[in-house]
From TrEMBL:
One of its GO terms (molecular function) is DNA binding. This is Curved DNA-binding protein. Keywords: Chaperone, DNA-binding, Metal-binding, Repeat, Zinc, Zinc-finger. GO terms for cellular component: cytoplasm. Residues 5-69 form the J domain. Signal peptide: none annotated. It comes from the Bacteria. GO terms for biological process: protein refolding. SMART domains: DnaJ. It comes from candidate division WS6 bacterium OLB20.
């Protein structure tokens, strides 16, 4: 099969610098890695990406390739990789964002994990690969905590793949995109190496009424102009149920009132956070003739400009 252009394989221009080459390689390697991509040609394309990166990330190889094409790389071992039949599926490499891994060429990875060199590598103990699972929580489940049962598949070198089920206790107050790590619950290790970990990524559903910032909760509440002027009470929802909020007379729109300890449980420590209610004064869009006359009369009173009415409208 004819070799493809290395720049096209990585989707970059011939003027790309090393940083752009590495970034393109990382992106393509994540997309095409056989553990993630089950397409029939994924493994072949993955090898092409590795080969392209090996050549273009090396100044000498890249110069020879730019001048002579694929023939120019033959003096460097023919291009491409010979990993000695190394099994990537059990390598323990984490190509997701949870691990924060910054990987370069295949040699860089081997050197980072195994101290460099290929000799005898296949017989060394190797840690199992981590497994990533995502679970979705409702807003209240994230606030108060919940126990969820999850199912996933776990691989072992000699026994093959097994289905696993476990209960996960999610603590109250957990933030969106948090990751819970369960040691030893990932894929089995090789040659006596330890198993990988299970990484449970938490996704919290958005609530139409509430916004959570740490253990505090925020919401908006509308009041009519009469309550804004005269004061009164307002029934508001909290994660603990309904409660009554006292509205002082003359309150301005955008004022924030606090409901003490009506927020979520504190993730670390005792007690609850607070709930903050932003008051939105709803001004009537239409007035009857009688209502307009009354507002006009009120506006003529000496203590209303610039007073409560002036501030609300102005």
């Amino acid at each position: 099969m004819a070799k493809r252009d290395y720049y096209n394989i990585l989707g970059i221009d011939k003027s790309a610098d090393k940083k752009q080459i590495k970034s393109a390689y990382r992106k393509m390697a994540k997309e095409l890695h056989p553990d993630r991509n089950k397409a029939a040609d994924a493994e072949e394309k993955f090898k092409e990406v590795q080969e392209a990166y090996e050549v273009l990330s090396d100044d000498q190889k890249r110069a020879a390739y730019d001048r002579f094409g694929h023939a120019g790389t033959s003096g460097f071992g023919g291009g491409g990789f010979n990993a000695g039949g190394f099994d990537f599926s059990g390598s323990g490499f984490d190509f997701g964002s949870a691990g924060g891994m910054d990987f370069g060429s295949i040699e860089d990875i081997f050197e980072q994990f195994f101290g460099g060199g290929f000799g005898g590598m296949r017989n060394r103990p190797r840690r199992g690969q981590d497994i990533g699972v995502r679970i979705q929580l409702s807003f209240k489940e994230a606030v108060f905590g919940v126990e969820k049962e999850i199912s996933y598949k776990r691989g072992f070198p000699e026994e093959g793949e097994k289905s696993e089920t476990m209960k996960v206790k999610v603590p109250g107050g957990i933030p969106d995109n948090a990751i819970l790590r369960f040691q030893g619950k990932g894929h089995g290790g090789f040659n006596g190496g330890p198993p990988g970990d299970l990484l449970v990524n938490i996704e919290v559903e958005v609530d139409d009424r509430f916004e959570r910032r740490g253990h505090d909760i925020y919401m908006d509440a509308e009041i009519d102009i009469y309550t804004a002027v005269l004061g009164g009470t307002l029934d508001v929802e909290t994660v603990h149920g309904k409660t009554t909020l006292k509205v002082p007379a003359g309150i301005q729109s955008e004022t924030v009132l606090r409901l003490k300890e009506k927020g979520g449980p504190k993730l670390r420590g005792n007690g609850n956070g607070d709930q903050y209610v932003r008051i939105i004064v709803k001004v009537p869009a239409k007035l009857s003739r009688q209502q307009r006359e009354l507002w006009e009369q009120l506006a003529q009173l000496p203590d209303t400009k610039p007073g409560i009415i002036g501030r609300i409208f102005g």
